[in-house]
Amino acid sequence: MALAAADRATVRALWKKMGSNVGVYATEALERMFLGFPSTTTYFLHLDLSLGSTQVKAHGQKVADALTLAVEHLEDLPRALSALRHRHVRELRVDPASFQLLGHCLLVTPARHFPGDFSPTLHASLVKFLSHVISALASDCR
User: Fold this and answer.
1) Domains, the chain
2) Which one of 7, 16, 63, 69 has the fewest beta carbons within 10 angstroms of its own beta carbon?
3) CA-based radius of gyration for the chain
4) What was the pLDDT predicted at 4?
5) Extended strands (E) in the chain
6) What is the distance between the alpha carbons of residues 55 and 124, in angstroms, rounded to a whole number?
7) Predicted confidence (pLDDT) per residue in 5-49, tens digit
8) pTM (two decimals)
């Protein structure tokens, strides 16, 4: 099921507001996930996971790029994210629960940075968007 037009518009407006800082916010979300859910670090043992590390920033930018791709292709997330899904599910064998945990952290981060804008409507739209992204990424796990 695709996102409703109002949800798509709300998510796109948030992305526009975040602008060139999407990578910064995605990095913060990763750092939150690593600190709050240490089991997720299992997939990153080869990286320096300290706060502010260049390796976490680089991966945060990859997350940001993937989410931006998703925002640009809201009408067909499974197709847009197919290569990413294949890599994470088939090659890296990421536990789908980790997508949920990152999704939670991706929700908390803009709420912290944009408290005046983080209305119940924005919250709901972002939850729906992240749920669709997670579903598209984890669909091969079923």
Assistant:
1) 5-141 (1.10.490.10)
2) 16
3) 14
4) 95
5) none
6) 31
7) 999 999 999 999 999 999 999 999 999 999 999 999 988 889 999
8) 0.91
What is the three-class DSSP state of 118?
Answer: coil
As given in the structure block, the two tokens for residue 130 are: 């992240």
Cα torsion through 121, 10, 101, 136, rounded to 10: 130
Which CA distances in Å does 23 have to 34, 74, 89, 95, 121?
A: 16, 19, 23, 23, 24
Burial profile 18-52: b = 16 or more Cβ within 10 angstroms, e = fewer: beeebbbbbbbbbbbbbeebeebeeeeeeeebeee
Does 59 count as an annotated binding residue? Answer: yes
Whether 86 has a binding-site annotation, put simply, is no
**Angle (nearest 5°) at CA 83 between 82 and 88:** 100
So what's the pLDDT on residue 90? 75
Supply the DSSP symbol for 86. I
